[in-house]
Amino acid sequence: MNIKNHEIIHEISRGAITTVYKAQHLNLNRTVILKVLNPQWLREQDLLKRFKREARISAHLQHPNIVNVYDFHISPDLVYISLEYVEGGTLEQLIHEKQPLALPQIISIVRDTLKALDYAHGKGVIHRDIKPGNILIDSNFTARLTDFGLASFQDMPGVTAQGQSMGTPAYMPPELIRGEKAGIQSDLYSLGLTLYEMLCGTNPFQKENTAATLQAVLSEEATDIASLRPEVPRLLTDMTRQLMARAPQERPPNAAVLLQQIEKTEAPATDSPTAKKKSPYWLPGFGVLLIAVLFYFILFTPRQEEQAVPPETLSSVQDSVPPAPATDNKQPAEKSGPRQSPIKTADNSPPVTLPSGPSPTETELPATGSIYVSCSPWAKVLLDGDSVDVTPLKQALELTPGTHRLELINPNYKSESFTVNIVAGKKDTLNVRLRPNFAYLMIKATPWARIYINDKYKEDTPLKQALIVPAGRNIIRLVNPALGTITDTLSVRAGERLEKHFRFAR
Description:
about 500 residues; alpha+beta; 4 domains; 6-stranded antiparallel sheet
């Protein structure tokens, strides 16, 4: 399947507004993410403006911590944006699977995001939707900022329908809720909430519905980080508090100030006066020369007690040979036979040549083997029944030789199990693509409803995109406080896309 200049590799997700594919850009010859506007929205001018805006703004930004836009197309029958493909997952997924995140990881992610914001703000671009779902973590654990669909230039108004707020409610700064203009401090506030979530595992203002969430942002205080995670250093607690100040003027003036705080705090770790000083450049060479001289005298200086060694006593002579110094360069064994070691005798007779094999350390096999697991989409990795990591892995798994059981688990996909045979010293690779075990369900309710799937609250209508529900039998419950409850049972197949419309009786 091809879409204009793109060869589709596979579908990643299908939402109510867009369908996202992994594709090969044929002209650029590179893997990309292709975000295509669903056909029913092709006449929606607000969405078309948002697509144009994202393409224009992203093309204006070229930074290692920002996902690049390569191409876009807008016509009456096709609208798409072609973005850089980043191997990895979102920060939202990482927080969910790796809670609590290690403090060095958090600092690294914050630093990368601040670099992206400092650059974007320097170009006059306000992102307006900073949240864990819009920060990608690539295979090198570098944070990459993406989704500039709500962004704006500081001298250009944003795309906002009359009477609506733009952004994700739980990460929106108070001034945007009040309808004020977004600025640099708006992005920094949202970053503060993202940092809080990385540290504590939860957004402090997320409530059961949008109205309650917005009210919490405007009036509630976040729980003190120290009471939830006492080991968090003061640098991060102070930074989070500054970023989450309700008044924009009380927040840091820009991202560069925060970057300086991080670098200043970490500098003593590498520049400490007590750090070990480097040896003068001539000492290593002098040491090697000294060892070489000693080696020469040990092996080649005749001793009074040494005598010629007859062939029949070779074994006893071999036992008396002094070991080679640690600095001696080892030579690989000859393919035609064992290495030969000349031993000089005390007189001037020809040296005796002794067979000598490699030292024990040269013949020892590594104690472990390894396997690198690559999985699309992400998955929790279980080894012999124990959870060990989450893909994408930072490095291969080191395992003892023998048979092991690997399981890959993602709640929305069918789990996969493998028996792997690990060989000492050998590195293997396992590439897996999980099969979907979910369906897409778009629910419409008149006039509106809170949606519960299998007794778990999902969202209030109207939905912005389809809900992901597990394959099989699901119990749907719609609640409208004024009109009552509607309950329905729905059986869905993996990969199925359904739309249901419910109407409350007045």
